[in-house]
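== Folding the chain ==

***
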Amino acid sequence: MNMFSDFNATLEHSVQTICDSSISGFKSNDTSISFSVTGEDGTEGFCRVCIPTALMNATYRVFVNGTEVQCNLLPCSNSSYSDLYFTDSHSTKEIVIIPELASLIILPLFMVGTLIIVKPPTQPEYKSTPPETHGRYGRLAAWIKTNYGSRFREDVTSVEVETQLTNILGELEAKGAFKKHPKIANGFRAYISERKYGDLVKVSE
C-alpha cells in the first residue's frame, strides 16, 4: 500500500513523500533532510520525494549503503518542486538528502549504519571519482584536488596552500555557492585554519 506523508521542513516549506514503506524520524535543517524507511525484508520498494526548490535545488544522486543507485527526476517536476523517484530493497534504512558541497563535510558523519544518501552536486561538479582519502576533511580535500588541483604544486609551504584555499573559498562565496548553506562555508574555513593539508598536496614547511 502506498503511503503519503507531508513533513514540515521549515516554517515556510514542507517535503512530501509517497512510499510503499513506513516513514519515521523526519528531520530537516539548513544542510540536510533525513528520515527512516521500513519495509518487509527481501521485497522491492520505491519512494517519491517532493522537495521545494526554494529549500534545495539541484541535480540529485542516491546512494544505498554507500552504493549509488539510479534516481529519476519525474516529469511533474517544475521550477517550484523537484519530484524524485528511486527504488531499493526493503529493510530499515535511513535516507539523507544533502547538497553536494554539504556532503563533503557532513557525509562522513552519516557513514555509520545503513544509509541511503541522496546528494545533489553544485558547481563546479566532479570531473571524476574522488580518490580514496583519509582524515576529517578527506572528501573535501578530494573535491578541491579534483576541481582545483592545477593551482597546487608539490612541496609548497602551508602558507601558499592556505592562500590558494582562501582564494577558492572567496570565489565560491562570490558565486553564491554557500548562500543557503553557511555551515558549509564554516567547515571550509575550519579546514583552512587547521593547516593540515597533507591529503591535498605535499607540503614542505
Observations:
- The helical segments are 100-110, 138-148, 158-174, 182-194.
- Residues 111-134 have pLDDT under 50 and may be disordered.
